[in-house]
């Protein structure tokens, strides 16, 4: 099967077909190019997605990634980042191995096609020229033959006419001979041109055109083979990254299998464990004998044994926990607003950070000292005195950091001495912490006033873990409100920010429903449904000794 023999007369159709083939190749190139753009866009979106959900450095979110589930999620994000990288590899390989290569090949193909069809047109023009020459010689031969016939007929007519002179007859005879000779010459010329044309035509249809069409056929077949190879490369580029993508997916599966729910549960315990012991049983309070009430559920005073009693009033529901001051302001330096266990962890972390800083500064000091020794031995390298100031600064920094570390280590030792041994459950008794708490409770009313007479909630290091006023934000539906036992006038403005406290304005007059029992707090009421505790030093109390509701709770 050869285009030169089978399609010898389909020059124009072959020209259209080969152009269509190039268009198909360019369409495939465009397809691959758009695929690479999609891969790049997909990879970019995957990277952005992975980056979006990465934990922010030095944030609370970063601390959450200590849990195995969060670590697995972080591993998934990292694997997806690598997964995106493989799609970038696909795009790069398709661009270099297919798009660029085919674009260069298309240009070569166009040039080759142009050259082949130029040769074909040149052969066509040549055979057309030979045909025109043949037609011209044929017409000339035909014309000369007719002229010779007319000249012969004229001679015969003149020769038969007796009235024509002999000279005229001779002239006619010569003219007929000339025309006959011209016809013979035209015949010979026509015959020669005809033979040459036939030879050219045979070569055209049996040599030139088959050769040109054969080149075009080979060119077209190479194009077809090339596009097939490109399709194989297209698939191979994808196949090459499948193992790596599989590893990424295996990494995600492995991360998922590494999730340990028990470990995460333990981390929750370590993160939020306060170190307190649950409160004990509440003693029964007999309200049938009002005058014999000896224990107030609203009191923060200590028991006879010196241990603080938890106060659970008739208006407290389920608040069976030591009342620790909520951290609504700036965290104290010693983290005393945290429960003991959490405070210990914070202090330990601070000590570790300070030790790392000390080590860093120490290394820097050693490096400066070595450099100074080098300068002393080789003065041409630098002035040793130029390092004295820097060395002094680093030494001072080390000293400051050591003092800071000692301060936090002292606080840590205090907390660790107060806490029970972590490995001995039998030693976890509330008294280990309550004793310290009681000491601060009995003294919490002291130093309440700043030099200018204003109240401050800032306390000393020892009182950061004080027991505050209980939370009396709920009412018993089945009890009557406590009666007023007097009135009071606010000496200063107080912002009640803790649970169980109430805000007052300087000069405001309110009702007293429970006097100070030695804990520095007085319970007051503004309206029938708005009551709470205020510091006793903030109000001037006027008790009504004859008031029926003037009871004392200890």
Give a nutshell description of this structure.
The chain is mainly alpha-helical. The chain has nine helices and five strands, in the order αααααααααβββββ. The protein has three domains: 3-263, Arfaptin homology (AH) domain/BAR domain (Substrate Binding Domain Of Dnak, Chain:A, Domain 2), CATH 1.20.1270; 340-418; 486-543, SH3 Domains (SH3 type barrels, Roll), CATH 2.30.30.
Question: What does this protein structure show overall?
Answer:
By secondary structure, this protein is mainly alpha-helical. Helix content is 59%, strand content 5%. The chain folds into three domains: 3-263, Up-down Bundle (Substrate Binding Domain Of Dnak, Chain:A, Domain 2), CATH 1.20.1270.60; 340-418; 486-543, SH3 type barrels (Roll). The protein has helices at residues 3-6, 11-52, 60-63, 68-160, 166-257, 261-272, 340-377, 388-418, 431-442; strands at 486-490, 509-514, 521-527, 530-535, 539-543. It has a five-stranded antiparallel beta sheet with strand order 4-3-2-1-5, with no helix packed on it. The longest helix is centred in the first third of the chain and has 93 residues, at 68-160. The protein is elongated and about 190 Å long. Residues 337-414 form the REM-1 domain.
What's the topology here?
Layout: H1 3-6, H2 11-52, H3 60-63, H4 68-160, H5 166-257, H6 261-272, H7 340-377, H8 388-418, H9 431-442, E1 486-490, E2 509-514, E3 521-527, E4 530-535, E5 539-543
Antiparallel strand pairs: 1-2, 1-5, 2-3, 3-4
Biased composition (Polar residues): 436-445
Domain F-BAR: 1-264
Family: Belongs to the FNBP1 family.
């Amino acid at each position: 099967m050869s285009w030169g023999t089978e399609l010898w007369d389909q020059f124009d159709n072959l020209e259209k077909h080969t152009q269509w083939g190039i268009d198909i190749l360019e369409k495939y190139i465009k397809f691959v190019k758009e695929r690479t753009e999609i891969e790049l866009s997909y990879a970019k979106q995957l990277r952005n997605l992975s980056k979006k959900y990465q934990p922010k450095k030095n944030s609370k979110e970063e601390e959450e990634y200590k849990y195995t589930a969060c670590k697995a999620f972080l591993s998934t994000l990292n694997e997806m980042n690598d997964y995106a990288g493989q799609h970038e590899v696909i795009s790069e390989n398709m661009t270099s191995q297919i798009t660029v290569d085919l674009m260069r090949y298309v240009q070569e193909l166009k040039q080759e096609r142009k050259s082949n069809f130029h040769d074909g047109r040149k052969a066509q023009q040549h055979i057309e020229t030979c045909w025109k020459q043949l037609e011209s010689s044929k017409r000339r031969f035909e014309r000369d033959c007719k002229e010779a016939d007319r000249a012969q007929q004229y001679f015969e007519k003149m020769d038969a006419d007796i009235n024509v002179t002999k000279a005229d007859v001779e002239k006619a005879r010569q003219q007929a001979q000339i025309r006959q000779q011209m016809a013979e010459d035209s015949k010979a010329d026509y015959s020669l041109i005809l033979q040459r044309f036939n030879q050219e035509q045979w070569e055209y249809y049996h040599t030139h055109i088959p050769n040109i069409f054969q080149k075009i056929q080979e060119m077209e077949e190479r194009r077809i083979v090339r596009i097939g190879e490109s399709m194989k490369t297209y698939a191979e580029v994808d196949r090459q990254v499948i193992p790596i993508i599989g590893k990424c997916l295996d990494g995600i599966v492995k991360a998922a299998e590494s999730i340990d729910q028990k470990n995460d549960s333990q981390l929750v315990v370590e993160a939020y464990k306060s170190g307190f012991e649950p409160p004990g049983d509440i003693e029964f309070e007999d309200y049938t004998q009002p005058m014999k009430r000896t224990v107030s559920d609203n009191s923060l005073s200590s028991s006879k044994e010196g241990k603080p009693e938890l106060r659970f009033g008739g208006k407290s529901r389920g608040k069976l926990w030591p009342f620790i001051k909520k951290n609504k302001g700036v965290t104290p330096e010693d983290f005393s607003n945290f429960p003991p266990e959490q405070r210990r962890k914070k202090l330990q972390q601070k000590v570790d950070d300070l030790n790392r800083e000390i080590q860093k500064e120490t290394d820097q000091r050693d490096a400066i000292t070595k450099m100074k020794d080098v300068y002393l031995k080789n003065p041409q390298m630098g002035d040793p005195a130029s390092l004295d100031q820097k060395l002094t600064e680093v030494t001072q920094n080390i000293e400051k950091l050591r003092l800071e570390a000692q301060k936090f280590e002292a606080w840590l030792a205090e907390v660790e001495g107060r806490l029970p041994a972590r490995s001995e459950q039998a030693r976890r008794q509330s008294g280990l912490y309550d004793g310290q708490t009681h000491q601060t409770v009995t003294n919490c009313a002291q130093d309440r006033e700043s030099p200018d007479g204003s109240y401050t909630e800032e306390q000393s290091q020892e009182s950061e873990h004080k027991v505050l006023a209980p939370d009396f934000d709920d009412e018993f539906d089945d009890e009557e409100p406590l009666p007023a036992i007097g009135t009071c006038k606010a000496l200063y403005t107080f912002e009640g920010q803790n649970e169980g406290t109430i805000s007052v304005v300087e000069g405001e007059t309110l009702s007293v429903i429970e006097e100070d029992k030695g804990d520095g707090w007085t319970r007051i009421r503004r309206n029938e449904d708005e009551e709470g505790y205020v510091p006793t030093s903030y109000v001037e109390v006027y008790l009504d000794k004859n008031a029926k509701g003037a009871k004392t709770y200890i």
